[in-house]
Design a protein that fits this description.
This protein is an alpha/beta fold. The protein has a single domain, classed as P-loop containing nucleotide triphosphate hydrolases (Rossmann fold), CATH 3.40.50. Helix content is about 35%, strand content about 25%. The chain contains seven helices and ten strands. The strands form two sheets. Strands 6-7-8-3-9-10 form a six-stranded mixed sheet, sandwiched between helices. Strands 2-1-4-5 form a four-stranded antiparallel sheet, covered by helices on one side. Strand 1 and strand 2 form a beta hairpin. Helix 4 packs across helix 5 and helix 5 packs parallel to helix 6. The longest helix has 18 residues. It starts with a strand and ends with a strand.
């Protein structure tokens, strides 16, 4: 589902050049649940952003769902992301002025989906994460774990083939973190969703199929 070949990412200013990723080659199989670990600043989120086509590498090739993406325009990339990818962030990124159902519907606004179908799909996604009784709540009325469940519902509402999760349990206590991890594992096992997760938590990482470690922008395991 994801193929990276010799990926390099360099950030440059007028005086400093920082090598964030160095010669990363990685294949993620369809239906795999992969975790990425490493110390802060090692390039984990940069790598995830490149997989998610939110950032472009300085060098190297990317193929997502058997499609090369280097020739796509910004508009085509946005459409591709919307169709193929779901994103989960540590800080949820919910819109506080919108009710839970409206937050979950957001990715569908960029598709040719009727209001009725958007509501139905969003409700089904919330049922999957156990929040069908919170559709009219606002984010500030929810706990951290509930907010992350809403974020997961938003990520899966468009039925993406790939979910990219950046520290999805990082802001949660261990009990809530385990609940969120259980939802991700169910999505992987029952729906066959390919998941790549960045985490600092060894316990969470060892629940996934495979663990990749980064250190100073280089893959060490």
């Amino acid at each position: 589902m994801i193929t990276l070949q010799n990926i390099e990412k360099v950030y440059r200013t007028n005086t400093v050049e920082t090598l964030a990723l160095n010669s990363i080659s990685l294949d993620v199989a369809k239906g795999e649940f992969l975790s990425i670990m490493g110390p802060s600043g090692c390039g984990k989120s940069t790598l995830l952003n490149i997989m998610g086509l939110l950032d472009m590498p300085s060098k190297g090739d990317i193929k997502i769902a058997n499609q090369k993406t280097d020739h796509l325009s910004d508009k085509q990339l946005a459409h591709f992301r919307n169709q193929k990818l779901g994103f989960i962030f540590q800080s949820y990124h919910l819109i506080n002025d919108l009710q839970v159902l409206d937050n979950v519907e957001l990715p569908l606004l960029y598709r040719s989906v009727s209001a009725k179908e958007r509501k139905q799909l969003a409700t089904e996604a919330l049922e999957k994460v156990g929040l069908a009784n919170r559709v009219k709540h606002f984010p500030n009325q929810l706990s951290g774990g509930q907010k992350q469940r809403v974020a997961i519902a938003r990520a899966i509402v468009g039925r993406p083939e790939i979910i990219l999760a950046d520290e999805p349990t990082g802001n949660l206590d261990s009990a809530m973190g385990n609940e969120i991890m259980e939802i991700l594992m169910q999505l992987n096992q029952k729906d066959g969703t390919t998941i790549v997760m960045v985490t600092h938590d060894e316990n969470m990482a060892h629940k996934t199929h495979r663990l990749v470690r980064l250190f100073d922008g280089t893959q060490v395991q």
